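Task 17 of the worksheet. Students: predict the tertiary structure of the chain below and write it out as structure tokens. Keep your answer in the requested format; marks are given for formatting as well as content.
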Amino acid sequence: MSPTTPPTWLVRTHTPIGRLELVSDGAALTTLTIERDGSLPFEAMPEHSNRVLDRAVKQLGEYFAGRRRSFSVPLAARGTPFQHAIWDQLTALGWGEVTTYGELGMGTGRATAGRAVGGAIGANPIPIIVPCHRVLGSDGKITGYSGGRGIPTKLWLLEHEGILLAA
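Model answer:
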């Protein structure tokens, strides 16, 4: 679904990192957007929830309250086979675990594909649940983040999971 195609199933929820907008195809979660500059892609559209979205909102609430460390919401992200290979590795990361772009590339058999790995991470349509915030540079430093307020949002998520980084 492109940002111009209105979704049938849509909800918004308030979180410590801003509002989240979740979209479903009726059977699975397809996108999760973190509010950026006070707006969301389908801001003007009314909400229409379903069981998948209700479950996702409940689990995200538990995550932000510190009571949930993994998610069990069905996902249906659209992407290339390479993107899915990266997203699958991210989904396998546990609470408080981090990885690097290089490690993700090696996991796909493309150890030198750092730029492609970064592109796949940036294209992740379901952040937090597919935890792209857990990816660091090879030197262990925080690199970019496209969700919410960018790096401050990534820092909040990492600290929430007990991942403390040297400045």
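Marker's comment: The chain has two domains: 9-64, 81-160. The radius of gyration is 15 Å.
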